[in-house]
Amino acid sequence: MAAVITGASSGIGKAFAERYAHDGHDVVLIARRRDRLDAVADELRERHGVRVDVIAADLSDDSAADRIAAALEAAGTRVDVLVNNAGFGVHADVAESDAAALSRQVQVNCGAVVAMTTRILPGMLARRAGTIVNVGSTASFQPVPHMAVYGASKAFVLSFTEALWEELRGTGVRVIALCPGATETEFFETAGEAAKTGRARGADDLVDHCLRSLATSKSSTVHGFENALVARVLPRLIPRKLMTAIAGRATGLPAQRPADAVAG
Ligand SMILES: NC(=O)c1ccc[n+]([C@@H]2O[C@H](COP(=O)([O-])OP(=O)(O)OC[C@H]3O[C@@H](n4cnc5c(N)ncnc54)[C@H](OP(=O)(O)O)[C@@H]3O)[C@@H](O)[C@H]2O)c1
């Protein structure tokens, strides 16, 4: 039984890896920074005595999912949990953004989620067991001016996951979209505190919330009561244009400030 976690070199992905290792799963850690992955792997092996494999891969590369699937097969890894967590955002207006960076964002946040899911799902279906967690965001629920591609990419994750949930009914395979609000990770080291909307919560608390939600039949879950109100209730009460304007106000780029590239 192994949990495969993308974006496991820091933040939310690292917290998932710690939890699954603590619960006795072998884990496979995926991200670009091999040194960081190796450090996480050493810590998990020492603390939990589980098998930890590291696959250094850039998920903006079209061929990454095939290479990861081949590495998993070569290692004889049976995947019972897939956490599609790797993702990043670009905090800038579209007109000011680097086109290649926006394409990479779509590939990592959307393309890699689909690519990893399609590589791992057949084995889960054959065993009639498995769990897939796709990390969305409170940004999944409304357009996000100044982080337009990020918001659209997270809306994709939510829509993809909810549709997949319906397709997987009765198969024994469980899928959920986990939608965090602001969470204390490296996201804000690069984004700056200005990108933080609302109180930031802990990544461990988010993972607890996800595991509790997986015990229900939900297709998606928002972390935090206030976040759920803003993400799920407010859009039903006010017009979408107003909701978009509010989101734009929350993520607004101060005048004269150079656009920041952010990871998270
Ligand atoms: N923190 C928040 O407030 C927040 C809120 C809502 C949703 N989220 C979502 O949570 C997820 C995790 O983010 P985080 O907050 O934990 O931020 P983080 O600490 O910056 O972690 C991002 C992870 O994604 C990996 N990654 C980024 N680009 C990659 C690429 N091209 N190929 C492979 N791996 C890549 C990074 O590893 P390498 O750099 O080593 O590749 C890192 O492990 C993201 O999908 C993010 O959108 C975060």
UniProtKB/TrEMBL annotation:
Stored InterPro entries: NAD(P)-bd_dom_sf, SDR_fam
Alphabetized UniProt keyword annotations: Oxidoreductase
SUPFAM superfamilies referenced in this protein's UniProt entry, alphabetically: NAD(P)-binding Rossmann-fold domains
This protein's record includes keyword Repeat: no
Superkingdom as given in the UniProt entry: Bacteria
Keyword field contains Cell membrane: no
Family: Belongs to the short-chain dehydrogenases/reductases (SDR) family.
Protein name listed in UniProt: SDR family oxidoreductase
Organism, as annotated: Leifsonia virtsii
